[in-house]
Amino acid sequence: MPRVIPVCYCGNPAKLNTSWSNDDPGRRFFGCKKFGSGFGKPCHFFIWFDPPLMPRSQIVLLGLLKKVRTLEDATGRERKTWILVLVFVTVLLFLNPKLAYVVVVSTKNQLMFCNIVAGILLVMLLYMAVGIHG
Q: Where does the record place the GRF-type domain (predicted)?
C-alpha cells in the first residue's frame, strides 16, 4: 500500500483500483472514489500506481485470465444443469409418488419415502440456487 494516498480533484482521498483491460491487466491505479458508485459525478482523477507490465507478463496474465473466465463459465453452466435436473426430479416425485418405487423397491411406505426424497431434493435445489447468487 502506498505511504501517501493522492487527493483527487474533488478533494477526497483517491481510491486504489485495479485495471483488467487488455492493455493493462492487473495494473493498479488511483481514481476518484465516486467513479462507478452512482453517488455524485466523478472528477475523472486518474494516476497509475504500478509501472507498466513487461510484454511477456502481459501475455501470460491475459492467458491466465482467459482460463479463469472459461472455468467460471463452465462451472456456472454445470451448476445450472444440476439445478434443472433437481427441479425435474423433484417435480416428477411430487407429481407421481409411485416413481419412488423405482428407487427403492422393498419400501413399505413408498409415499412417505417419496416425500422425504422430494424434500431432500428441494432443500438441495434451494441450497444450490442460493449458491449461484450468494
A: 8-52
The whole-angstrom separation of Cα 14 and Cα 32 is 5
* C-beta of residue 14 within 8 angstroms of C-beta of residue 35: no
Domain chopping of the chain, boundaries: 1-53, 57-133
Q: What is the pTM of this model?
A: 0.52
Q: What is the CA radius of gyration of the chain?
A: 26
CA distances for 75 relative to 16, 68, 82, angstroms: 30, 10, 11
Grid-cell match 487527493, residue found = 7
Judged by DSSP in three states, 20 sits in coil
Residue-wise pLDDT for 4-24, tens only, equals: 888 988 888 998 999 888 888
DSSP state of 31: E
